[in-house]
Amino acid sequence: MPIDDPTGPADPRELLLRHLDIYRSTVLGKLDGLSETELRTSRLPSGWTPLELLNHLAHVERRWLCWGFRAEPITDPWGDNGPEGRWHVPPQEPAAAVLERFRDQCERSRAIVAAEPDLDRRAALGGRFATASEAPTLGQILFHLFQEYARHAGHLDIVRELADADATPTPP
């Protein structure tokens, strides 16, 4: 749905949530049909692979909504890689497991957001945030997620364009 669709939601919350889901779907669509090799090979100067980027997005949702907004106890909010890691996906981990983790986390995130109707509600203390002054609102968190997805969907768009160009036979 285009952002300027007059039949789309006028409510800012619904608009934000619908477009966040559009980006989630866009990310999955960019990965759809890539070979196992393409999923695990980087085409970007950053060195990230498409599978690592999906792993990163699953952790971003978990870190911001479960640990951040809900202050749920999470022993590894940054995953196995720490806050500066590349979100490495071990070669023995099936791509399907990363896709499932991502989809499961998106469902968990949707449930957290659905349980809180107030975008102005501040994140609970005790998880990611120790003081009220640093705790963002749910709306700020969702907007941050939106920005993450927009940025990384762009990365995957480039990856997909390069992969598809390589897969297209050159006419003789």
TrEMBL record:
Gene3D superfamilies: dinb family like domain. It holds the Pfam family MST. SUPFAM superfamilies: DinB/YfiT-like putative metalloenzymes. This is DinB family protein.
